[in-house]
Amino acid sequence: MALPPVAVLGGTGQHGRGLACRLARAGYPVVVGSRDPLRAVRVVDEWREPCPIATASILEAVQRAAVVVLAIPFDAVDPTLRSVSPCFAHEALVVDVTVPLTFVGGVAGLARVAEGSAAEHVKARVPAHVRVAATFKTVPARLLHAADSPLDCDEFVCGDSSSARTDASALITAVSGLRAVDVGPLSRAQAIEHLTLLAVAINRRHHVHDARFRIVGL
Ligand SMILES: NC(=O)c1ccc[n+]([C@@H]2O[C@H](COP(=O)([O-])OP(=O)(O)OC[C@H]3O[C@@H](n4cnc5c(N)ncnc54)[C@H](OP(=O)(O)O)[C@@H]3O)[C@@H](O)[C@H]2O)c1
Fold first, then answer.
1. How many CA atoms lie within 13 A of 2 on its CB side?
2. What is the atom index within ligand 1 of the atom nearest the CA of 72?
């Protein structure tokens, strides 16, 4: 069966780039959605990726995709979703990778989100027919960039339906060295986002860059 087309909004950024390249290498048709599509062409060209990665405006990328990865800063979620909401394909899957991290006085924290988590915040801002899953929140962007090295870790996934979790898990499994760990409903995203904060703290305390998670006993 053909793999669904994936739009990576913010694919020109740190985290989105790794996701776009890894998914393209796994055979997904990938389009990077950018506020500045001309700059995105230049950025993607510089990657010299062996697999084709298209570029488009945010709106066009969403229109073309069955899966939309939100790889933009959390602060940019509201205006971005407001502008693309009417463009989602029926039953499209939004994969939220955002983490509302804050750095105040050099100390990392999580912004308070009224809905409980960034993923639930996203769910409240997409049309009812759009499915939402949260994942790729704890895998370090730096490692995703190194497209040839296996990541050798688990990636948690939660979602608003079993189909959302299944489709998001397929993306995770397509990335070499990642194992998908389904943790249930979208409300678990809060716990996942706290794990990202924990990974940031571990990196700082132990002077490393790529702390990540592996569940034993599964
Ligand atoms: N970095 C990590 O290790 C990591 C790990 C887990 C999760 N995350 C999450 O992944 C998301 C992206 O992280 P990142 O480090 O890749 O961020 P980033 O590099 O700062 O930004 C990613 C892209 O988002 C777009 N963007 C930036 N500001 C925007 C705005 N105000 N409105 C709309 N689009 C904007 C830009 O693309 P265009 O200019 O092309 O539109 C940019 O290249 C964040 O929510 C972060 O919490 C990151």
1. 6
2. 24
Separation of alpha carbons 50 and 18, rounded Å: 14
Work out which ligand 1 atom sits closest to the CA atom of 74.
45
User: pLDDT-based confidence at 140, cuts 50/70/90?
Assistant: very high
| Centre of ligand 1 from the C-alpha of residue 11, in Å | 8
Q: What residues pair up with 185 in beta bridges, in sequence order?
A: 159
Full-model pTM = 0.97
DSSP letters spanning 119-174: HHHHHTTS-TT-EEEE-SSSS-HHHHHSTTS---EEEEEEESSHHHHHHHHHHHHH
CA-angle at 39, arms to 37 and 40, nearest 5°: 60
Nearest CA to ligand 1 atom 7: 137
pLDDT > 70 in the chain, percent: 100
Q: What mean pLDDT value characterizes the chain?
A: 96
Contact call for residues 138 and 192 (beta carbons, < 8 A):
yes
pLDDT band at 1 (very low <50, low <70, confident <90, very high): confident
Ligand 1: list residues with CB < 6 Å.
10, 12-16, 34-36, 40, 71-74, 76, 80, 97-99, 101, 137, 140-141, 196
Question: For residue range 69-100, what is the model confidence (pLDDT) as tens digits?
Answer: 999 999 999 999 999 999 999 999 999 999 99
**Which residue among 15, 84, 193 has the greatest number of ligand 1 atoms within 8 angstroms of its CB, and so is best to mutate?**
15
